# Entry
Amino acid sequence: MKKVLLLNGPNLNLLGTREPEVYGHETLTDLVNVVTKHGAAAGIEITARQSNIEGELVDYLHEAQAWASGVVFNPGAYTHYSIALRDAISGTGLPVVEVHLSNTKAREEFRHESIVSAVCLGTIAGFGVTSYLLALDALSDHFGKHND
# Structure
């Protein structure tokens, strides 16, 4: 069974209450439960982590190198300026799919650029919780093609 780190960055612990018109009404617990169920159906075990602290997210990525086959990662606001997260993604060598609940290209201009996307397999954004399921499907497809 493949193991995937589901990693969520700053403010995602506020899902369900923070700007539900943008991020939806599902809580982080709801999101984790849906992704975990979807993963189990595909033979993927999910380990979920969330932090508002950049260094903890880096640590989670480093730790995942020892046990995970890949990562579904929503870096939140760190998407736009965290060289440390970019370097951690690149440094681990793990396949990572960047994911966002909202369509970042349809929002404020400062959200249009991702500093981490260049070191990820791809980016899925704008489909709410379904973005995470699509990201997991993309990783599963990657595993099937690369036997990672």
The helical segments are 20-23, 28-41, 54-64, 83-92, 129-146. The CA atoms of residues 66 and 104 lie 31 Å apart. The chain has five helices and five strands.
